[in-house]
Amino acid sequence: MRIKNLLSLFAVIALVMLGTSCYAGDQPAAVYGNGANQFSLATGSPGELGLLQVLAEAFGKQDNAKMTWFKAGSGKSLQLLKDKKVDMIMVHAPAAEKKAVQDGWATKKTLLGSNEFFIVGPANDPAKIAGAKTAVDAYRRIAAAKAKFFSRGDNSGTHKKEMGIWKKAEIKPQGDWYVVTKDFMTATLKRANQEKGYFMVDSSTWVADKKDVPNLKILFKGDKLLVNTYHALCQPSGATPGAGTAAKFIDFVASPQGQKIIQDYGQDKYGTGLYNDAAYAKQYDD
Length: 286
Prior knowledge:
Largest sheet: 11 strands, mixed
CATH class of the largest domain: Alpha Beta
Number of helices: 13
Helix content: 40-55%
Structural class: alpha/beta
CATH superfamily of the largest domain: Periplasmic binding protein-like II
Radius of gyration: 21 Å
Distance between the termini: 66 Å
CATH architecture of the largest domain: 3-Layer(aba) Sandwich
Oligomer: single chain
Number of strands: 11
């Protein structure tokens, strides 16, 4: 009987696994609102830092909506949209976004705002990147010094930007000094702090988390190459049950009310906003 019961248990587990998507992130990071109009969204930093919750709750009250958020970097978010596992995404991967629209499985590309990347590292700056003229120069100095550098390595927007800079520097990063974490922004930043290495972090995460990473400081910023524009993309009309509500949410975020939320977010807690609005971001938009 014990063997039969064990076999039955295995059978149940197998059936459960067959009925479950292979994407580990199918468990949502959070659900905001309790309205009748439900939709799902995948994004990384805006969700991690709390901006998404404020936007979702304001929209939910206005349009009787409920949002399910899946935590994913830009690369994974784009794949989820392509696979019709979410209704919309917020990402920062311009080339991939354009291709998604051209290929027809993403619509309503809308500029939402921006932040920028900082290259942070230990105060003693072993690669001397504080004297760099450009981001490419900074990366070349890090590689030449074989100074420890942390990469998310996850096909996120941050990772795509990083790899683009290495390409411009004509360097293929490899070796013990180049550490791939396969983790999100905050987790990788904290590891860089623990091991006193370099990392390219977005300005929003830095403002929110710098108090927790005392071993790091901003060593390079200001290159236009490091500006980071965020766009929303949506399923084509009718492609998923929540596509219509998601399209309305994009309109809300792009509206004066949504843009005011973006402008103000973080001011009360950090003394400065975490994101720039779309009007500012437009000058850097491709």
